Amino acid sequence: MKVEGNTKGPKKDTSTKVSLEEKAKEWMDAQESSPRPGSTYKKQYIPKGVTLNPIVKMVPPSSLKPNPRNDFDPLTKEEYESLKENIALNGILDALTAKKDGTLVTGENRYRIALELKDHEDENVRRRVENIPVRYYMNELTQEEEYDILEGDNLFRRHLTAEQRKERLKRRILRKYKDE
Fold this sequence. Notes:
Residues 57-154 form the ParB-like N-terminal domain. By secondary structure, this protein is of the alpha+beta class.
C-alpha cells in the first residue's frame, strides 16, 4: 500500500484563523438578519450612496425632533389610536431613522406617540417609551435623498388608496421638476 503526502515534519495548520474584524462583521450580519418580531428592517428604501448605521441606539424621544420636510398627511384618528395602543403594549418594534442632528427621517408618528406615552399612568408603558430605537444616517443627506427615504417609508407602511398614491406621485413630480 502506497501512502502519499509528507508524513515527516510538523503538520501545517490548514484551518483558517478568523480575525476579530471578521468575527465582528459576522456578528453584525447576524444582528441585521435577525430583526425583532414585527420589524420591517431590510424592506426600507435607502438611496445608493447613503449609509444607514446598522447599530440601533436607544435614545430618549426628547433628543429627537420632527422633520419640517415631512409633508405626508397625518394618520387617521383610528390608525393613530391603533398604533398608539400597539406601542403601549409592545414598545416600538421598528427603529426610527434620523440624521446626525436628531432630525427624524422616518418614524414621526411613532416619535409623537412615544412623547405622548411618556406620561402614561402605567409605569410599564412609560418604561417602554423612555428610550426608543433609532438608527442614524452616517452621511449627510441631500434634500432629494431625504424625501425619497421619507416617501418610500410612508408608502410602504401606509395603506393608501389609488387616489392618494396618485396624489403623492403628482407631488413628487412637481417637487422634482419645480426648478426646471
